[in-house]
Design goal:
Elements (H helix, E strand, L loop, with lengths): L5 E5 L3 H12 L3 E5 L3 H4 L8 E2 L3 H5 L4 E4 L4 H11 L8 E4 L5 H13 L3 E4 L2 E2 L2 H5 L3 E5 L6 H11 E6 L8 H29 L4 H8 L7 H11 L10 H17 L5 H18 L22
Parallel strand pairs: 1-2, 1-4, 2-3, 4-5, 5-6, 8-9
Antiparallel strand pairs: 7-8
Length: 299
């Protein structure tokens, strides 16, 4: 391939591992690093080179892709990598980091003469593994020829949200989209919890809305995870949802709006995590409706 790149993926959790795998399958040279090396090791069988440190991972790379937990972790990781970064290296920042954090990361990139792209992704485990994510991107137009092969390898669609990654246009759009995802997820869990409390067969509720304006694929997908007890491995973990929900509430407050639903969703996710569901799919917030020993929805 004429546009073969050396891509360094920092962070190989649910999303990062899938992105690294798809980049390798697309023919790129991929180097991956994760704080817990054991989580990155399975990628070696896919042709991904596993590095011991962030600096080793980014050595002589064309593009660095960060998919870490949050803004502070991303900044600390890039500080570890910076000694091996060349001026002009492209940095694709895909962590949902929040508006303020993206500005901080962009400033770090500018100080080290890196070409910065704010590029969070929309999607969960399944589309990530299939290379069908939606990439929300903001960054300079003149560098897009280099990042386009990366975006094409991990996603089915790229939505451009500006030419200055420091402005966080892509992150702003991601927070709005995630506010809807969290609201729908929390509402689906509550509907199933109420059905349980009222001794209503959840299948009857789903049949009632089937094919009408109240029906949606996301409701059915998340309900199926709860009803079938398939909450692990998570499509999107409760702990990550807590982080995103808090970023959404903070962004709303900074913009002068109160987001009651997002605040409630964050509280439900936190409660579910405290009950031991932090590593399960975020629809496990269903269990936050109950006490210490919540019933199974179909039991």
């Amino acid at each position: 391939m004429t546009d073969r790149l050396t891509v360094s993926v920092l962070g190989t959790g649910i999303m990062g591992a899938a992105m690294a795998r798809n980049l390798a399958r697309a023919g790129h040279i991929v180097r991956a690093w994760n704080r817990t090396r054991a989580k990155a090791e399975p990628l070696a069988s896919e042709g991904v080179h596993i590095a011991d440190t962030p600096a080793q991972a980014v050595q002589d790379g064309d593009v660095v892709l960060t998919m870490l937990h949050d803004g502070p972790v991303t900044l600390n990781t890039m500080r570890e990598a910076v000694t091996a970064l060349r001026p002009g290296t492209v940095w694709v920042q895909s962590t949902t980091a929040g508006i303020e954090a993206v500005g901080t990361l962009a400033a770090f990139a500018g100080a080290h003469k890196l070409v910065f792209y704010d590029a969070p992704v929309l999607g969960t485990r399944q589309p990530a593994e299939a290379g069908k994510l939606t990439v929300l991107a903001a960054g300079p137009a003149e560098g897009r020829a280099k990042v386009t092969p990366v975006f094409d390898a991990v996603g089915a669609r790229t939505v451009w949200a500006g030419e200055d990654g420091a402005e966080g246009g892509a992150t702003r759009l991601k927070l709005v989209a995630n506010s809807w995802v969290l609201a729908v997820t929390a509402a689906a869990g509550e509907a199933l919890a109420l059905a349980k409390a009222l001794d209503v067969d959840p299948a009857g509720f789903l049949d009632l809305v089937a094919g009408g304006p109240l029906d949606m694929g996301y409701l059915r997908a998340k309900s199926d995870l709860v009803l079938g007890g398939r909450l692990t491995p998570p499509q999107f973990a409760v702990t990550t949802a807590v982080k995103d929900a808090r970023l959404i509430v903070e962004a709303g407050a900074a913009g002068g709006v109160r987001l009651d639903v997002a605040e409630a969703a964050a509280a439900r996710m936190e409660r579910a995590a405290a009950q031991g569901h932090g590593g399960e799919d975020m629809v496990a917030a269903y269990f936050a409706s109950f006490g210490e020993d919540p019933p199974h929805p179909s039991g």
